[in-house]
Amino acid sequence: ISRTLLLVLCIMDTFICLAESASSSNQPANLALGEADESPDTDLMRRINGMYRLVDLYKEHGTVDKILFAKESIVALMKKLAPSSNASLVEINFAPLDHVTILPLGIYGDKGAITQFLRMVAGIDDETAAKLLAPTDSISASGQPKRLALSCGLYFLLPQSNSLTPEPLHTHRSFIIYWPEDTTWDDNAIGTVRRNRTTFMRYLTKLTPQIRSLISKSYADLIVWKGADKEVVVSGTTEQKGAENYPGFEFRHSAITTPTLPPDLTVPVKSSDILRCRLVFGETKQGFLSTRFIPYQKDSNIINMNLNKLGLSGLLARHQNIHLGKDVTEEGLSILMNDSRLQQRADRLMNQWRSDVKTWSDNRDQEIKEGLAQVQTSIAEGRQELTFQVRIRIASVFMSIFPSLEPDRLRGTQPHSTDEVNPDFWNDLFAKHPSALKAETDVVDQKRLSHISCHKYNAVKKRVLEKKNELLNCEGLSEEERNDLFLEIIHDERRNRGIWTKLSKASNTSRTLIGHDRYPPAEPSTTTDCEFMAILDDMARYPHMRPLVEEIYDLIYNWVNRKIEELSPKLVDKVESIQRREMENQNKEQAKFEEKKKKAEGFEVFRNALQKILLPNPDRPCLTVNSIRRGYHSFGQPTYDLIGVVESEKEPCIEYTLFMLELTESDKTHIQEDPRFLPRPEAYGVASFRLSLQDSIRHIQAIGNQILLIVDKPSGVSIWLSERSRIGYDAPVKQFPLSQRQHLFAIHEHRRQLAIAYIEPTGQILLQIQAFDEKFTSIQARGSPQNVTSWYQDGPPDIQHICFAGGPEELCIVEGTGRVRIYSFVSQDFSAATLQFRSGLDVQSVHSAPDDSAMIVVERVPATGYQLRVYHWNSFGQLPEGCILPLPDSIDFRSTTEFCPSSIGERSNAAIIAIMPSQHTMRCINIQNKKISAANSFKSKDDKGTKVLDNTMHNSFIDCHADVWAHYPVGSATKWGQTSSESHQPPPSLTFVCQQDSRLFSTYFKRMIKDLASEKPTEHVLDAVRIWAGSIEVLDWDSLEVGESKAGGWFVKLLYLTPIQIAFAPHNDLVPLIILANGTIDPRQEQRIVGAAVDQMIDSIGLGWYDSIKSYMSMKPVKAVSSKNIKSCTSLEPGTYIIKCVVSSCTLNIYRSEERRNPGICHYRTFKSRSERWLIEQGEEGYRFKNISTGLYISLIPYIKSGDEVLALQHPFEWIVEENEEGIYHVKVASNPQLFLDFGCGDQVLVCDDCHGEPNQQWTFERINDDHLPLRNKQIYIGPVPPGLYWLGQPGEAHEYAHWRNIPPDGVPSIAALGATARLPLGDENQAYAHLAPVADGPWLHQIWALEPGRHGYRLRNVALNAYLNYVDSEPVLESTVSGFLSVTEWSLAKDKEGDPKDRRDYLVRPSADRNVAIGVKKGDLFNQLRVKTLDKWSEERKEGHIYLPWRFEPVQEKFLDTSFSTASAGDLLLQSYV
Question: Are 663 and 681 in contact (CB under 8 A)?
Fold first, then answer.
């Protein structure tokens, strides 16, 4: 059932939405201006003939009230006045409206009086009047009434034609009516209602100079006439009780106590009550400060620090006692002793240590030298034995390879005696020198030695192996034949050919008999020498073969002996080298070991001696260095890693613990409902801090979330202002050095002011106010101290107390004689009202109530201890005894040590807090002030029955004008839509329609003007306002003279009064202009924007009607005005100027000097350079002059005086520009208008006192172009080339450069393009040059240019350097935007008449301001640098073929951009650059 019901409701809602959309489909969409028209169901305006809504109040949930235009109603009114205006929700033509003249009369007042007026003028009926008077207590979510009502706003009423005197054609008498909210005219209205009242009254006073205030009798009778101070007299006195007190909360805590100092304390103490538990003052907060005595103690802190040389020196300098830890090495001591201070302390010891170290080093070197000689001797003595052992070693290797060898036939291997035989020689050698084994293996390689490398032997071996069977059958040969055969085998000589024939036959016969060869054939190449020698041994069994075998063995022994002779020296040299090296190393190590041992023993002696020097007082705190070593290098400087312990001694001190009281949320709620409710506060410790026994706390107060602490120290008075947890740790914000001067302080948290009274030893009294910033983090003096000594004719008094009075910047001063006076820092004099305490009054303290209602005096009385006296500021001086408030008898206050004022829950709930440490208690006494002007009734001389009361109820009917003056400028910035004849404009007037005397209004109004003139400039505009009063029946509405206004200008003025809301941030989410519609949130508009392209987003940003009035107001003169207390010039607009002095034709410029730290301001003859151009900016108190070339401001150093030089500094400085006569101005210092900008002496510009019209203080401002100013919407230049990124190249032949041609799909374009100075940083003046060069292999950014639209042409920006191509001093240079300020040259593109007319990409590039010149490159110039020449000059050189002109704009493909540009299109880059 529930789902079905929900479906039915959804279908019904859909049909209703379709019907509403169909009915409103013909209505245009609302734009950026607000739309506040209400639906006909709830709008009572539609029942009043001729009424149109101008401005409405829109209440949006979660934000402040908004003032929005009723656009549909305004459009209907414009069409009523001028149908040809074509007014719509999008655009308005204001010109036809200027042909219509309106006579607007302003109307405001209470609802009853305005309703009566509408009955008379608009003829409304009784039902409509009743609905107008009904309260609008039922409000919808949008802030509009649900039932039929008239919402708060501004209305335009065209009365019926027969109700007033007919006007001429195209002239309309009208009424501008401000319809208020229900509580608009209540003086105690909430802040939102008061702000709305001020805003709508500003609209009304700006839209018409003639206003009538309609006030009903019930409201008029309750107006308090505060302006007639001199017109009233005191008729009598009736005592009234102005205050009463009643007990408040009671709070107990064990920390509320006063401890005692130890009796054996020897340190002097600043004050005897230094351990007293104190109250923490606070206008809205309460707390106390407990104390604890801390005896003398030592503290140890482990440090692990990385220090540079300066930091290490500072650390060592802060400690007289330095203890060296056991881990401190010699390197660490060397680092420490590099410090000059430590060197002075241990200079003799350090010299002795250096001498010992040098001696040990010399001894080591001597030992090494002697050891080397011993090594050489030892090696020389053992060389013979080594050589013999080496030969035996090599021979043994050969014998192991060739077992057939006989040792006796190996030369040099036989010992001469038994002493030479040492079988363990090589084992001992290898044990001592293991590397000798590898050397022996490398020299005596068995693999290489197993092959006999003798040519003759190998030939004999081959022949023997080939003929060995024949040789064995040579038994039958004769002796001669065998000899010939052996000679032939050995020497390869053919002596007898018949021998081999016989041997061959014998071999065949032997083979036939035994069936095979006696020896199988052997291959010479595969038979090793060892195998061959075995064959020889076998052949030697035959006697006839022994001679041959012996011959072959002789060859073998010869080769082996030769190898032994060859390898023995090599192995001997290697073994000796190894012995020498290792023995030398061993000798060096032994020497170093001995040196290290001696050095370690000496270091201990040196360290102990040094420790005694560095630690003269072992009982005192010291710096223990456990280890120190070199760290990393920082900026080329070495650093040191130090680990140690810092001991510090702490003298006896007082530890203060801050406790703050906090009310629960339940208690706060009950106090709001019932101020007499007794809360139960809870205390929590916030922080602790310590002060020495010589310090004394003067005052401590909780201000916001900060703590203000004033301490008397031996060096003077110090003031801390820090967070509660940081109190005592941060540096003081103010310090007053020790002197004979006395200081008294008073703090006003709500006004963020600190008053200081300086009492000099000579008796002079100086008063000064210092101001806290908004977050209470700093204090700044407001002006210099004011000397009030001259006000005391009988000599300066003894000032006992000071506190703030009720008025702004007023200080109450209590003298020792009992006289109390109020001093005003604004008027710099004392008030006429004084107060005299009775004689014998023992005043303990004087305070101002937290709500500024009264002065509270704490008086000591013998009986009960203390009592309070309350003196109301509004009756100050009239009740000498004040209002006496005895403290409750049920509480014994005699043990109270301190009182302080505060408030409980709300600031109006004043209270006095008392602390009783002996009872561990804080008590609160609530004070209820009754605000009375005095205990008198005042009567006017003219009206005996008029009462003057201070608690006003409906004075806002008059005070609303003062609120407008205080929040907005008094003067008008523009003359709006007036008729041509100024004489036809009547003076401004304000008529009060009520049953009161006109003189009361006039006096009251003049008093408001006088008060305003002392605070801000009024330009005497208000002096011309005429004040009238009369009843509605007496006043003649038709004959009232009203100023004429052109309707077009009047509507433009209305539109300009409402600010444009571009964004707001609900719930920390930024909603920009493009998502706002009608000044309110529109989800449909947001949905349209989501996912839109950049162009669509730009198109959606519009200012609606404001775009239509730009051309209308473009020629209107404007002057600068401000809502602050400043004065500015009357016709000087922000922009770029050349400033000249009337006394000469010199212009203001900047000069630099090596002798000066800061550049100065001078006057030179004009050179048309950039340094003489100044951007004039509007500031808060005047104008700022910023140099175009350097970005520096015309400025002064602090504490300026007459005759000071004017400097060029980085921080902005503000000046007041006042027009002396037409086109001639005075320039004054904004912070000190008595000082004028002066021509000075020589070239230096000064500030001097007023010279009363002398020309050296008169200046002219010559306006020049404003290309550097930000671009505005619809002021962007549209040229022949679309904005984007381009190569700027040459279309014709470029000789050494390639032709332009199409860029290949994959490759680098072969072109000659204009580029920035290749990868060179900009110079000191942020300048570089452009030149023509082939496109490099990459990167290409320095040859890519962004073509950006300006006002009158294009701006050319180099992508790589982010620098613009500017035309400076007849030269094209690239200027960086690093300085944050730049005047950018704009260039125009024109077709080249002498070029190819078919190519649309070729253009001459010319400055927009001087189109007779163009940029180009002359062939042969150094680096082909870009030049600027006249067109005629380029034409002459073109005929000679010596130029590169014109320029072709070739779009850059995205692939040629680096990663920082690859993700953005050209349009995105341009949008970023100028939107």
Answer: yes
Q: Is 479 within 8 Å of 471 (Cβ atoms)? A: no
Query: Following CA atoms 62, 68, 72, 74 in sequence, which dihedral angle do they give, to the nearest 10 degrees?
Result: 170
Q: Give me the residues paired with residue 214 across strands.
A: 109, 993
Tell me the pLDDT tens digit for each residue of 397-411: 888 888 888 877 787
Query: How many angstroms separate the CA atoms of 1443 and 1428, rounded?
Result: 12
The first and second tokens of residue 768, run together, are 């000064």
Q: According to the model, what pLDDT value does residue 1398 have?
A: 58
Task: Quote the tokens at residue 833.
Answer: 């009202």
- Going by C-alpha positions, the residue among 730, 1080, 1293, 956 that lies closest to residue 201 is 956
Extract the runs of DSSP E, i.e. beta strands, from 190-318: 210-214, 232-237, 243-252, 278-280, 287-294, 297-308
The pLDDT confidence band at residue 169, using thresholds 50, 70 and 90, is low
What is the Cα–Cα distance from 477 to 876, expressed in whole angstroms? 167
What is the helix (H) or strand (E) element at residue 109, kind and residue range?
Answer: strand 101-109
Q: pLDDT at position 1084, please?
A: 61
Residue 663 has pLDDT above 70, yes or no: yes
What is the distance between the alpha carbons of residues 745 and 59, in angstroms, rounded to a whole number? 46
Element (H, E) at 455: helix 455-466
- 589-603, 973-987, 1023-1037, 1256-1270: which range is least confident on average? 973-987
Max CA-CA distance within the chain? 187
d(CA 1456, CA 1444): 24
255-260 — which CB contacts under 8 Å span 24+ positions? 255/288, 255/290, 255/657, 255/659, 255/683, 256/288, 256/290, 256/915, 256/916, 256/917, 256/920, 256/921, 256/922, 257/290, 257/917, 257/918, 257/920, 258/291, 258/897, 258/917, 258/918, 259/291, 259/292, 259/293
**Alpha helix (H) residue ranges in 1025-1093:** 1047-1057, 1083-1089
Q: Which residues pair with 1390 in a beta bridge?
A: 1404
Token duo for residue 1048: 């077009």
Do residues 1375 and 1357 make contact, with C-beta atoms less than 8 angstroms apart? no
Which residue reads 């071996």 in tokens?
Answer: 461
Q: How far apart are CA 463 and CA 524, in angstroms?
A: 9
How far is 1121 from 1182, CA to CA, in rounded Å?
Answer: 9
CB 1397 within 8 A of CB 1420: no
Q: Which helix (H) or strand (E) holds 447?
A: helix 446-449
Q: Is the pTM of this model over 0.90?
A: no
Contact 180, 152 (CB under 8 A): yes
Q: Give the span between the Cα atoms of 391 and 371, in whole angstroms.
A: 29
Average confidence score pLDDT of the chain: 76
pLDDT for the residue 289: 93
Alpha carbon 370 to chain centroid distance?
71
Chain-centre distance of CA 636, in angstroms? 29
CA–CA dist 51, 70 (Å, integer): 12
Task: Show the tokens assigned to 53.
Answer: 């809504």
Contact 57, 153 (CB under 8 A): yes
Gap between the Cα atoms of 728 and 145, Å rounded: 57
Give the CA-trace dihedral at 158, 159, 162, 166, to 10 degrees. -50
Pairwise CA distance, residues 1277 & 1271, whole Å = 10
Count of helices and strands (H, E) across the chain: 31, 69
Q: What radius of gyration do the chain's Cα atoms show?
A: 55
Q: How far is CA 202 from CA 282, 341, 718, 963, in A?
A: 38, 74, 47, 9
* Cβ-contact 446, 399 below 8 angstroms: no
Determine the 3-state secondary structure of 697 from DSSP: strand
User: Is the bond into 1339 cis (omega within 30 degrees of 0)?
Assistant: yes
